[in-house]
Structures are given as structure tokens and as C-alpha cells.
Amino acid sequence: MFTEINLSNNNNLAIQVNYPGCEIAPSLQLKLLIMSSCNIEQNTLLKPKFLKSQVDLQVLDLSHNKLLGPSPNFLFLNNTKLKYLNLRNNSLVSAMNLQLYPKAPILAIDLSQNNIDGLIPNNISLMFPHLISLNISGNNFSGNVPLSLCKLSNMSFLDLSNNSFSGEIPNCIFTNCTSLWILKLSDNNFNGTIFGVANKLPPSLTRLYLDGNNMTGSFPANLPTYEELSVLDLNGNQLSGPLPQSIGNLYHIRILNLAGNNLDGVIPHQLCNLTSLAYLDLTGNNFNGSMPFCSHPLNISSVYLSSNALVGSSPYHTFNFSTIEILDLSKNQFSGSLHWIGALEAIRLLSLRENQFEGTLSQNICHLNNLRILDLSANNLEGILPLCLFKLPFQAAPGYSDYFWELTNEFNMIGIDSSWEDVSIDVVYPTHDDLQHFSFATKGSFYNFSTVFFGLLSGVDLSRNKFSGLIPPGIRNTNPIQVLNLSHNMLTGPIPKTISHFRHIES
Q1: For residue 455, what are the CA distances in angstroms to 329, 372, 395, 449, 507?
Q2: Which of 33, 68, 479, 491 is 20 to 30 Å from 140 at the Cα level?
Q3: For residues 63 and 37, what is the distance between their CA atoms, to the nearest angstrom?
Q4: pLDDT exceeding 70 applies to what percent of the chain?
């Protein structure tokens, strides 16, 4: 008799597990039951005759359905063997309460994207002493994080993001949970100083997300070397003060997001030590001065330096321009000519808006065949518009770079390796999502766009400069450029009839 059933991704499947008048559960005993995205409704949990009969069940995945009501405490009764439970993206409304129940052998729980409110049970370490993965993101949990979480010494993945937790993050999470690999506490109401605890990060930690909270304080002058840390996201807090030279100790960091804080001062030369860096976001701080000169410019993919007070001609000596796909220098005090623009061989999004660049637009811009978004507005550029600019394809590339596909693709939380004797569980952790973003003016207003729109929108904004002469009479483009803004310049003459060839234009 088979012991595994996988019916996932059958939205039109009619599933009836409780037959009227039938009190006898089927004799079938499963070890694995996966019914994700099967349009299952509430009765599966409210009248769970079949599930209660499954005494050997080790893996249960009912994610992405229409389950309602409280969390199914019954799953942990009667000497349960359950190791993995996924109820992600349903409509559950209360957390599990197992105060009177025996310890469960479960290793991984995913209750994310439900409507669960209240507190994390104070006895969670007694309920699930073997837990290695807990995801309760996207709910309505509140209150402080209980200290009992710190007793889960085998925990390697913890996601409490997108809730309403408050108070300080317990120090013991960093000191006791020494197996932590990924810690995601984003978008809550946590306060206190981040680096009061960050000096004690678990040695195995690879990704730390504390963005979207109310954390304060500054970077310590003696930031330790974290050998494994590859992602540090502190975006949207209230950090202040300068970046210390010890920022260069994050040798293996790949994603560094410090946007939306109150950091200031000059960006230290030790940034050049971050040779693995692929994504840097310092948007919306108070950094000033010039970017550091690196003897070996960083091979980076995305650079966001918008809304600071940076000066100089460009960060040409900091980053390898041939590898950059996104460069946002908008709303700074950069100046000089754009002679370097042709070096951006891989560029897809280039925003130099609201700086002090001057001179003519180099013909080198016409070699940027991967370009999707170009914003040079509000500078002091002059001269005639190069016709070749409007002959660029402005087409979506076949896909994101391999690096960003790796980072933005959200994997399932679990990989299941079945054998005749048992079901072993190998947790595959979700990765950073929605990395790429940009702001752009269209239809008379500025909008903030996320990753999804990066491959959908294309446009050119050359407004608020000193361009002169005719709009090139040979201008034509049958490719999907959607936004073209040439307003507030010194252009003369008629609007060319060939501009009608912009068939996808929206504004």
C-alpha cells in the first residue's frame, strides 16, 4: 500500500475527505501528504476525521488553500510522528497552544501568510524542542519575543517578519541559538540598539534582516569579522553616525542594505575590502564627500546611492562599471561631464537625476544596448540630442543576471527525500526577494517601482536640462519604449511626424 500522496497544484480538484454519515476513516496510512494549492476549504480542519486517523504522518503540506479557523492542535496529539507542517497562505486565525500536550518531534513549521494574532506561546521550546525552522511571517502576532525561543538551540531558520512584534530583540537569540543560519525580523516594531547584540552574532549566520523597525544606535568602531555573513539588511531604521572602518571586516558580504537611516560622514575606504559585494543600497542617508578610490574596483551588479550629499565626478574608481546593471546616483551633488557613461556595458537602469552634471551627451551612450530606464533629468546637460539614443532597443533582457535570479527566486521551504524506512527532511531556505527597485516619473508623477516592473517598464527622461536644437527628425522607434520626457529644455522646431512610430508610448 502506498504511503505518499502528492496532489499539489490542482486548483480545480474536488476533494472530499469527510463523507456524510461515514464515521469510519480509511485504513490508508500515509507518511507524506502534499495537497498544496488544491482549493481545499475549511472542513478539512474543522472535521478532520481523515487527518486524525493518520498516525504515521510525517510530512503534511496544505499550503495555499482556503483553510479557516484555529491552528490544528490535534495534529500533535497521540504520540504524533509529524516532522514537517506547512499551512502557509491560508486564513488561520489563532496560534497553536499545546500546554497540555506532549512534546512534538516536529522539525519545521510554516504558518506564514495567515491571519494569526496574539502572542508566541511562552512554552514554545517545550512544545517543539527539536524545531530547526519556524516561519510565522505575514501574520498579526504582537508583543515581545518570548525568551523560550532562545532555548531552541538547533534552530537554523527563524522568520518573524511582517508582524507587530515590539520591544527589544532578546540578546539570547544571538548568543544561544548558535545554529542560526537565517534570521528575518523585518517589518515589525522592534526597538533598541542593533549592535548591542550584533557583536554576538551566531558564527553560522549567513543572512540577517532587521529592516523596517525602529532600531537606533550606530555601527561599533570594532565591528567583528563575520566569516559567513552574506546578507545584512538594516534598511528603514534610525541608525546614525558614520560607517566605521571596521565595515571592511564583512569580507563575504554580498548584499548590504543600509538605506533609509540617518547615517552620515564620508564612506570609508575600507568599503573596497568587500570584494564579494554585489548589491549596495545607501539610499536616503546623509553621506557626504567623494566615493573611495579602490585600487581594484568592486565587481558589483547594483549600486543605489540616491538622496545623499555625495560629490565628485562619479564612483568610477570605486566600482567596475562594466559589471553594473543598476546605477542610481540621483539626488546628490555629482558633477562634471558624462564621458564615462559608455563604460556601463551591462547597464539596464541608469538614474543620474538631480545632480550637477554638465556638458554634451556623449555618443558613447548609444552603445548601451541593455538599457531599459535612463533618467538624466534636472542636470545642466546641453547640446543636441543624439539620434542614436532613440535607436536603442529598450527591450527587456532575456532574464535577470544569474546572480539576481539566485537571490530573487523564492524556493519552497522544504525538499523531501523519501526512503523505504523514513522520510528525511532537508530544509531549503527562501532567499532575499524584491531586491531591485527604482523611482521614475511617468504620467506627470513620480512612482516607486519594484522588481516586477523592472522588466516591464522602459523610458527616457531628459527633462529639466539645457538641450537645444531640433528633436532629431529621423527619430523613430518601434520597440517598447513607454515613457519619453523632453520637457523643460531649449528644444526648437516642429515635433517630427516620425515620433508616431513610438507605438508603445504611454506618456
Answers
A1: 20, 8, 8, 11, 18
A2: 33
A3: 6
A4: 77
User: pLDDT tens across 246-266, in order?
Assistant: 899 999 999 999 999 999 999
Region of 168 on the Ramachandran plot (φ > 0 left; ψ -120 to 50 alpha; else beta): beta
- Terminal-residue alpha carbon distance, the chain: 63
Distance of CA 491 to the CA centre of its chain: 42
Could you read off the pLDDT of 199-233 as tens digits, one per residue? 678 889 999 999 999 999 988 777 777 888 999 99
Distance CA(440)–CA(326), nearest Å, equals 14
Q: How far apart are CA 495 and CA 35, in angstroms?
A: 59
Helix (H, G, I), strand (E, B) or coil at 178: coil
State the Cα–Cα distance between residues 323 and 296, nearest whole angstrom.
13
Over residues 345-389, the pLDDT tens digits come to 999 999 999 999 999 998 889 899 999 889 999 999 999 998 888
- Cell 527566486, located at residue: 409
Rounded Cα distance, 416 and 169, in Å: 33
Query: Residue 91: CB partners within 8 Å, gap ≥ 6?
Result: 66, 67, 68, 114, 115
The grid coordinates listed for 248 are 571592511
Q: How many CA atoms lie within 13 A of 164 on its CB side?
A: 10
Q: Report d(CA 142, CA 120) in Å as an integer.
A: 8
Please enumerate in sequence order all residues whose Cβ is within 8 A of that of 140, keeping only pairs 6 or more positions apart, or say none.
115, 116, 117, 118, 163, 164
Distances from the Cα of 18 to the Cα of 2, 69, 211, 260, 266, angstroms: 21, 17, 44, 52, 67
| Alpha-carbon gap, residue 23 to 436, rounded angstroms | 54
pLDDT along the chain (507 residues), means of 10: 80 59 62 85 65 84 87 77 91 72 82 92 88 95 94 94 95 90 95 73 90 90 82 95 92 94 97 96 97 96 96 95 95 96 93 96 89 93 89 65 38 41 51 59 62 70 93 67 88 79 62
> Are 191 and 215 within 8 A, CB to CB?
yes
Q: Which residues pair with 133 in a beta bridge?
A: 108, 157
**Joined grid coordinates for residue 449:** 517601482
Cβ–Cβ under 8 Å, residues 227 and 203: yes
Q: What is this structure's pTM?
A: 0.89
**Which of 304, 341, 345, 293 has the alpha carbon at shortest distance from 323?**
345
At 155, list the grid cell.
534552530
For residue 280, the cross-strand partners are 256, 303
Angle at 116 between CA 113 and CA 121, to 5 degrees: 120
Q: Contact, 279 vs 300, CB < 8 A? A: yes
Per-domain boundaries in the chain: 442-446+453-501
In this structure, what C-alpha cell is assigned to residue 123? Answer: 512554552
What contacts 231, CB < 8 A, 6 or more positions away? 206, 207, 208, 209, 253, 254, 255, 432
